[in-house]
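Customer ticket, subject: "Can you confirm the structure for F-box domain-containing protein?"

Message body: Hello, I'm evaluating your service for our small team and ran a test protein. I'd like someone to confirm that this is what the system normally returns, since I don't have a reference to compare against.
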Amino acid sequence: MDAGPEYYDVIVLGEVPPPPYFKTWIANARKDLDEFFEAWKPAGYLCYEEEFATFDRPTADFMVEWVYEIDLDRLTFRINSSPMFRLDCLPPGDQLERYISEDSYGHIATPSDMSKEYLYDWKTPPPPVEEALIDAYRSISHGTTAVPTHQLLATEEDLSPVESAWVAFLEIREFESFACWTELEDSHRALCLAAVNSAFLAPFVAKSSEQSPPFDLPEGDFWWAQADACVTVATHPDDERNAQAAIARLQEDIMRKADTPRVVYGVTTSVQHVVVVRVDKSAQGALQHTPALQFFLSFYTESRSTPGITALARLGRYTQPCMCIPPKPLGYPSLHIPDDIVWEIAAHLTDARDLRNFAMLSTQAFAAAKPFLQYPHFGECLLRSPQPGEYTLVSARFDTFEKGDPVVIELKALCSRPPTTELKLNSFKPLEYEICTALDSYDGDNE
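Agent reply: Thanks for trying us out. I re-ran your input and got the following:
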């Protein structure tokens, strides 16, 4: 029904009984709905008289401003597809309006200070874990505890300039309602893999580009992002036993894979959390891993960053895929020029294409160009460093060059005017996303 909360609460919320009668009501509601759809299942469509019901989920648009849903499976009341309230503990109907607000991204949500008794709670308890997986984890972890990301990667605790740029580039909602990783649908697995893959490949390319089309979703829940890095999808990695089981499965898959480097890194993710794992195949699969790190931002965040984003940005740079950097020089490998001159040339090449061509000249030129090619880039623009300052949660500014001149580029969500550039996400089918994004250039001297 397309009516505001001040009207709709009287009609529907009043039909949901209080706790003493709720169990009987929900059982009858589920039974009635099952019988209704079962009657029309052979035809595959609903008759004209029953058009109040549809097989497709309704969504709000310019014609229908409000869409209300009663989720009989997760006992959740939704407004415009956003989960809002517990169905078995709804706020008072005459006060519904005061419990409808916005989150940090402008999406409809409950107020952050609303009483938890009304807030939807569809997170399922962690599923039981086979004891054999826990024993396998203990046998390969040798009693070690989770370690910070920088210790896992054997690198400095502070971010390098390249890592800082990638962290800002990746900073841009949760699968807590699934009982087990085996329940995840293709779209959820695709989103998990696409999100983590952003650490290894630039997550967006120009819409006009024919490069990096959506990947085919791999069979199962295990995917090799590159020769020394793999990803697996899980649920409840914030639960100790489920995390240990996921790590044990990941390590087993890594050890079975032939023709890999001596050390392989893995990521187990639910999108809400990530765990980064290091497996040393030359040491009988000995491993280290981080704790479960928050990856996606909360609805009410005030910061664009999370520990998981930072960890994946560092992992992606540490394992740097060879597709971003020419594998070997093709020009004059024996040609020698004083190092300071070669590095000066590389530092003054502002076009990514020129840098790649320069890197192909010799081993010396390759070494000089490599640090600059590790930065994220759009086409010919290298995003050299994020600009300091407070911006929105979905925008960031970077120092770069355009036609040789220093400029500041801002990446942000589409606003009211047409976008400067439309981007598409390096994704997995069935997520063939195209994102309207403004890519604006500013005169660096005026910023």
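A couple of notes from the result: The longest strand covers residues 434-443. The first helix runs from residue 5 to 11. Feel free to reply with more questions.
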